[in-house]
Amino acid sequence: MFIVGTDTFLVSPLLPTLSAMYHIPTAQSGWITSAYAIGYVIAALLAGPISDNRDKKKVLVGGFLGFALATFLCGFAFTFPLMLLFRFLAGVSAAIGGPQIWASIPVVIERKYVIRAMGYVGAALSVSQLAGVPIGSFLASVTWRLPFLVIGGLSLALCLITQLMLPTLNPNPAPQATAAGDSAQQARATRESQPSQVQSQPSPSQPRNSFLQTYASVLSNRMSLAVLLGYFLFQLGNFSVLNFIGTWFNKDFRLSLTSIGTAMIFIGIGNLIGTVFGSRLSERLGIRTSLLLGFGVLFALYLALPFAPSPVFATIGLTLVMLVNGFIFPLFMTLLQSTSTNARSTMSSLGNAAMYAGSSVAGIIGGSLITAFPSFFGIAYFTIIAYVLSLAVYTASGSLNGTDK
């Protein structure tokens, strides 16, 4: 999960370099991030339900093998169309392999350690957001190809480790002890008891189109649709900022790739702190109050951010933004899981699709905003509009009612 998350944020600091190399305007460079997101969205809508009827180990290894190859080939993309193709294929492969990590935990981990394991995977994803941009920046200071070659090589190594160490993960294993010592019955009980993205596996006797019926039930739920729309709008604004931090720092402050990477370390630390410690505060305040407080602080920060007179102030402002984002992110995931308790896995897949759809659209719109408006004004104020709409959708849907203690 750390590798997948790192690759997601790998390209942001490379956009100025790739724009110059491909001789494309900055507005078009956003398509490099969008291509990955588009591939992820398309594959996520199908891969999750389909993989429920197959050995998750094979799906995981196959997905990561494709991910390793596509990412490695990005390092040899000498033309803009080739880069778009390989990033698209990397997104498709990530959507196939990534969800199997969550789904495998209750099968291979003892029941009493499942929550802890879920936390480790979640922390890996958060740290990847912290590390993705600086890793990309530091490796790209040698050559722009190196980030893709390193991530591709590490992904291939993970494929080999997974193939050798992970047990078979059939959808309905016989009632015998797993490698971790849990029985299949205990694993099924864990999946039912834990409010995670992982659900009990369907019987092979169920029709193959059962996942279509599951999607139909979710999409007929107005509150579920509203929560997904609100989450999409939030991520639309969020990725508009994340995708073009490097471009802003390079354009306005003339920072090098190494300096951008250093700034992103501090920005990422803010996100990590918010993710780790924010849950305690939100438990005291409740979801509704926490979300209103978080959005209010973000509005104020984004209003002031474009006026930052130096990269130091810009970094401080973005660090505070990411701290608040880390604080409210678990609230979105909780709302996604609570609107359709019988289809939590499907809601997780749709939530991922909404996130990457937001990233895709943000890459396209953000490229135009960063060139059409001075400094960071266009992106910052567009993000405020997206957040206002997101909060309005959540409030109007009634999903926040009764969520405070």
TrEMBL record:
Q: What is its main location?
A: membrane
* A GO term for molecular function: transmembrane transporter activity
Q: How does it sit in the membrane?
A: Multi-pass membrane protein
The UniProt record lists the Major facilitator superfamily (MFS) profile domain at: 1-398
- Entry GO CC: plasma membrane
Compartment annotation: Cell membrane
The Low complexity compositionally biased stretches are 193-207
Q: SUPFAM superfamilies, alphabetically?
A: MFS general substrate transporter
- Key words of the record: Cell membrane, Membrane, Transmembrane, Transmembrane helix
- Region of interest called Disordered, as start-end residue ranges on this chain: 175-209
The record ties this protein, via InterPro entries, to: MFS, MFS_dom, MFS_Efflux_Transporters, MFS_trans_sf
Membrane-crossing segments per the record: 29-47, 59-78, 84-105, 117-140, 146-166, 225-249, 255-273, 285-305, 311-332, 353-373, 379-400
What is this protein's record name? MFS transporter
Q: Which organism is it from?
A: Bifidobacterium tibiigranuli
